[in-house]
Amino acid sequence: MTGRSTAATPWLALAAIVLLAAALRFPTLATQSVWFDEAATWELTRLPFGEMLSALPDRESNPPLYYVLEWLWTRAFGDGAWGLRSLSAVLGTLVVPVAYGIGHRIGGPRAGLATAALIAVNPLLVWFSQEARSYELVVLLSAWSLLLFLRSLDDDRPRVLAWWAAASALALCSHYFAAFVLAPQVAWLVWRHPRRRAVLAAVGGLAVVGLALLPMLLEQRGNPYDIAGASIVVRLLQVPKQFLLGYRGPLALASGLAGAALIAGALWLLARHARNAVRERAVLVGGIGAVGVVLPAAAAVLGADYLNARNVIPSLVPLAAVLGAGFAVTRPPRIGLALLTALCAISLGVVVVVAADQQYQRPDWKGLARALGSSGEPRVLVVTPANGEAALRFYRRDLRTLSDAGTRVRDVAVVSVATSSGPGDPPVLQQQYGAGFPPGLYDFGPPRATRTGAWTTLRFHQPAATLVQPLPISSIRFGERPPSVALLPATR
Q1: CA R_g for the chain
Q2: 379-384: strand order across its sheet
Q3: Contact residues for 226 (Cβ-Cβ < 8 A; gap 6+)
Q4: Is the same domain home to 455 and 333?
């Protein structure tokens, strides 16, 4: 016997939770600025389809499925901020009913609704539902794979295993780290499933897909990949915090302590008051989620360091489902519901504040692009951080990198946007580096400075147009790292 209840699905309650999830994702979809990673997606999906596929091994660190879907999606809905991100918002909303199914398989309809509610308001999942990257796709597909895995424990027909293999293969094609939550499922099926031949066929098909992806993975290993400078231990400890509260938000310490206490309450209810079948199924699902974090941490210790919350995000749904099973315990009466309500209220508060307050959002390249305004003459921009040029180009699409030969202009703007040193860190404006241009080379007067909490500009002007080249003009910048030097043509 399993923890799965045969009670009817409470469709109205589930529909209300799905609508809440959509309401948290779609209305503010274009509120935050597009940032570098999303600009990289935008630049790829603007290419002809074949060129995009050819460029993936050199320019990305993920498998191709998301980019194929996004290429098709933007042809239908456009490549503005809403069109670029709306695929992720749809995927993020679809995760909710799949999460319901996982919770239902563990502990019945109440557990399903509790899990769906946790996923609907989760700040990290809302964040990635509004980002044009592959994270919501892998969350959805790995959750679907887990749901089919749980179904295969109750229904041993080969076709269920075939569907599990298909969902798992798609998850692997969306993000390589899906492998870490698939591995324990494979081990369990091989060890315990009665249909040994069907299991071997399903696992064999999944292995073929993995082998087909291996050449791209090996080619992408040399690509730059931004891992924050914090130690492995610190980044591992950041995972539960970011799974609970997202990257940034108000009252992080107080919210984190309160959330931890509520999670402890859910686990206590599960351990003390859940039926044995529910508890056993929850331990299995929680183990799958835990392995999805522990294996990347072990790989990081061994030198393959890609450990951060966004990469291990396939573990979030199974871990939330364990909490959902705990909150759904009916005895003691209503305690689980009260704890669930409190945790959802914390998550909802974080989501609302992040949507309203720039200090918790992505770097404000949109605000900087607006502040640059229009000009009847071309301008040179010295942009820091350097990768921000791609994000700025999303909003100023005529922007192009300045060639080494340079160009003749009268105006130079040294610009920077506040960025964080790592996920979860507050955004900081870099200090100005360099006090002046090389003596006698340019005749710029004192700059006109504009500073906000999100971006800053120094605007230099000289009476006559002069040949400006990237290297000497970058002697003034924000931060010590080399900037990007770009040309913004005259606005007609």
Answers
A1: 25
A2: 400-401, 484-488, 379-384, 407-417, 455-468, 448-451
A3: none
A4: no
Task: Provide the number of structural domains found in the chain.
Answer: 2
Question: E strand or H helix at 107, and its extent?
Answer: helix 81-107
Q: Are 455 and 477 within one domain?
A: yes
Range of the domain at 433: 365-488
391 plus 252 within the same structural domain: no
> In a structure prediction context, what are the per-residue pLDDT tens digits for the chain, which is 492 residues long?
344 444 567 999 999 999 999 999 999 999 999 999 999 999 999 999 999 999 999 999 999 999 999 999 999 999 999 999 999 999 999 999 999 999 999 999 999 999 999 999 999 999 999 999 999 999 999 999 999 999 999 999 999 999 999 999 999 999 999 999 999 999 999 999 999 999 999 999 999 999 999 999 999 887 766 665 678 898 999 999 999 999 989 999 999 999 999 999 999 999 999 999 999 999 999 999 999 999 999 999 998 888 999 999 999 999 999 999 999 998 887 999 999 999 999 999 999 999 999 999 999 999 999 999 988 899 999 999 999 999 999 999 999 999 999 999 999 999 999 988 776 677 888 888 887 787 777 888 889 999 998 999 999 999 999 999 998 898 899 988 899 999 999 986
User: What is the value of pTM for the model shown?
Assistant: 0.94
